[in-house]
């Protein structure tokens, strides 16, 4: 069957399925959980609470086969230039290739260079952590500030928080926003004499990062003298010539390559701040976890393949059932920045409206991705998830155990809340059930009638749940790689290039043109009335 024929079969099947609820599907099949769950070692994906049956799943797998997921996956791992609009290979998987197998890009094995950078990062991280490499005054560094934005910030910032129990190095800080408040509030707490800056930028041209780096440089030069600057800076970039022009000496520059997309770069030298925080060995565990998922993605049959299943569920929700968003709900406070990280990964990759060949897409593409950790979100926006007019598929994440052995009762509560939410979304509460509960509480009949509709939960709302043993460096690496491959598979089905990001360019160009107008150096007459009005309000 051709792709479009499968899509119409899926739509027909969805209307048939709409007559039965998730409640009924569970009641009819005691093995539903076994049939609609899959594993990658201790990582479990439960998708039994999505509105799929065996026929729906088989049609989705047919979609994956017809879209040639396997062929395109193999092309990515083989270093083919699948990022066609930038004419680049997509090789973040080589960064966590833990085997001895060479990885060829443009006829060259890239593994020796990758290992050399990893070794240089480890030497530098150990020297900072041990105090062997000191500040200009000979003091050990107590604080490291990473200056970067987007992919040069979100990966390290998210993983640093996630792996807090493994920190045994200096304290990490992150500055990303060009808003001066960000760097001012960060520097306020720090002592220049014991602070090291990492300037992280793939292109080394990003205005936010360059502006923050210059402010940090001035802070060091003003307080410790110009000669101290070299000791307090290191850089991470693919643009080694531009780093040299900034004045950071070669031995403190950690490179990566144009075949690593910004939002896929946490595995590269961009991960240096994480390595400084948790140490090289734990960083290698993080890479090992991602490698396990890479092997699973390459080797597991489609019907047991976690990234493929999650992608197919994404397509089912977005294109067949028409849901516009998905909520990422980690029941793990240390994954507080995961939703923001996945926003960039997913929305910058799959927020596209044309196919690889430039023609308009045939289907809706990437959804709005958002979320907050549980249980906090329960007391904020879950009202809408349960009783709002829009259905928003939810993605729950939970570990079997936390790191606080003496606080196990907290973790039990966390688990109970996580499971309760997916159960509530699935089951809902009927008018009859709501009325009976009110009657049982002794309420008068007319009051029951008045209040019961407010206490109805429509239910039948889909969710998936990811469970792992514990949020270790290994488990985190595996989880991120899972989401990366899921985004890739969805992009293949939609026929888009998930690895460029032209949509961020127009705003950058217009900001550059507006700056002299904001400063009052040029006349905004060429601008539209709204922009002129706002400019004049801002300039007073
Ligand atoms: O927002 C666009 C973008 O290019 C992202 O893709 C990237 O992660 C971010 O800016 C930062 O870019 P760089 O690492 O080159 O400073």
UniProtKB/TrEMBL annotation:
<comment type="similarity">
    <text>Belongs to the GPI family.</text>
</comment>
<feature type="active site" description="Proton donor">
    <location>
        <position position="348"/>
    </location>
</feature>
<protein>
    <recommendedName>
        <fullName>Glucose-6-phosphate isomerase</fullName>
        <ecNumber>5.3.1.9</ecNumber>
    </recommendedName>
</protein>
<feature type="compositionally biased region" description="Basic and acidic residues">
    <location>
        <begin position="521"/>
        <end position="530"/>
    </location>
</feature>
<keyword id="KW-0963">Cytoplasm</keyword>
<comment type="function">
    <text>Catalyzes the reversible isomerization of glucose-6-phosphate to fructose-6-phosphate.</text>
</comment>
<feature type="active site">
    <location>
        <position position="508"/>
    </location>
</feature>
<dbReference type="Pfam" id="PF00342">
    <property type="entry name" value="PGI"/>
</dbReference>
<dbReference type="InterPro" id="IPR046348">
    <property type="entry name" value="SIS_dom_sf"/>
</dbReference>
<keyword id="KW-0413">Isomerase</keyword>
<comment type="pathway">
    <text>Carbohydrate degradation; glycolysis; D-glyceraldehyde 3-phosphate and glycerone phosphate from D-glucose: step 2/4.</text>
</comment>
<feature type="active site">
    <location>
        <position position="379"/>
    </location>
</feature>
<dbReference type="InterPro" id="IPR001672">
    <property type="entry name" value="G6P_Isomerase"/>
</dbReference>
<keyword id="KW-0312">Gluconeogenesis</keyword>
<dbReference type="InterPro" id="IPR023096">
    <property type="entry name" value="G6P_Isomerase_C"/>
</dbReference>
<dbReference type="GO" id="GO:0016853">
    <property type="term" value="F:isomerase activity"/>
</dbReference>
<dbReference type="InterPro" id="IPR035482">
    <property type="entry name" value="SIS_PGI_2"/>
</dbReference>
<dbReference type="InterPro" id="IPR035476">
    <property type="entry name" value="SIS_PGI_1"/>
</dbReference>
<comment type="pathway">
    <text>Carbohydrate biosynthesis; gluconeogenesis.</text>
</comment>
<dbReference type="InterPro" id="IPR018189">
    <property type="entry name" value="Phosphoglucose_isomerase_CS"/>
</dbReference>
<feature type="region of interest" description="Disordered">
    <location>
        <begin position="521"/>
        <end position="540"/>
    </location>
</feature>
<keyword id="KW-0324">Glycolysis</keyword>
